[in-house]
Amino acid sequence: AQSVTQLDSHVSVSEGTPVLLRCNYSSSYSPSLFWYVQHPNKGLQLLLKYTSAATLVKGINGFEAEFKKSETSFHLTKPSAHMSDAAEYFCVVSEGQGNKLVFGAGTILRVKS
Amino acid sequence: DVKVTQSSRYLVKRTGEKVFLECVQDMDHENMFWYRQDPGLGLRLIYFSYDVKMKEKGDIPEGYSVSREKKERFSLILESASTNQTSMYLCASRRTGSYEQYFGPGTRLTVT
């Protein structure tokens, strides 16, 4: 069975500094990996996805993630945090043909001014 | 833009009541999903449907049932609500062949 571990439940950064949200996964075959973001009182929005093409994936709002098979990691980064990035972020692995998503527990990102 | 709507943002029900949560999508997606979201647990799949009248259990189906009579609508039913079903419920849809799931805004259900 596939699983996802988000290594930090809360991350706090200052505006303008880099963001790193860490995610490790376990999978018995080539996974598809995603990051979703959830702003307060909003639904989840897809930030970016890895589906066996380029290992460095660019998403919306300046976010990137790098798939590292040897480390079974898919960390999310952004060079410079904005206040509007404050939200909860979920790392997700897909089983099968995309109908079974396995979510991590989530990381709440706080951005200080 | 894909739109997934849920019938209520907030709902308060009493223990033992039958509860219906409705979800509608407007993009003709074949696949629809119900999740519950609890702090520290992420989202967990309750049921999904890959076609009208078709359904499959997810990871936590106990205490829930679903109905999909029309392609655009997917209902989650709590036959007899219990306090441990107090949670945020999220609906999603996906086009076959695409990996992305599109989520609704969620229904926060409180069972007292």
Provide key terms for this protein:
heterodimer; A: 113 residues; mainly beta; Immunoglobulin-like; 6-stranded mixed β-sheet; 4-stranded antiparallel β-sheet; B: 112 residues; 7-stranded mixed β-sheet; 11 strands; 0% helix; 56% strand; globular
Characterise the protein shown here.
The complex is a heterodimer of chains A (113) and B (112). The mean pLDDT of chain A is 91. In chain A, the strands form 3 sheets. In chain A, strands 2, 5, 6, 10, 11 and 12 form a 6-stranded mixed beta sheet that branches. In chain A, strands 3-9-8-7 form a 4-stranded antiparallel beta sheet, with no helix packed on it. Chain A has one domain (3-52, 64-100, 108-112): Sandwich (Immunoglobulin-like). The N and C termini of chain A lie far apart (41 Å). Chain A is globular, with a radius of gyration of 13 Å. Chain A contains no helices and 12 strands. In chain A, a hairpin with a 4-residue loop joins strand 8 (64-68) and strand 9 (73-78). Chain A has 113 residues and is mainly β. With 112 residues, chain B is mainly β. Chain B has a single domain, classed as Immunoglobulins (Immunoglobulin-like). In chain B, 0% of the residues lie in helices and 56% in strands. Chain B has strands spanning 4-6, 10-13, 19-25, 31-38, 42-51, 54-57, 65-70, 73-78, 87-94, 102-103, 107-111. In chain B, the strands form 2 sheets. In chain B, strands 2, 4, 5, 6, 9, 10 and 11 form a 7-stranded mixed beta sheet that branches. A 4-stranded antiparallel beta sheet of chain B has the order 1-3-8-7, with no helix packed on it. In chain B, a hairpin with a 2-residue loop joins strand 5 (42-51) and strand 6 (54-57). Chain B is globular, with a radius of gyration of 13 Å. At the A-B interface, strand 5, strand 6 and strand 11 of A face strand 5 and strand 9 of B.
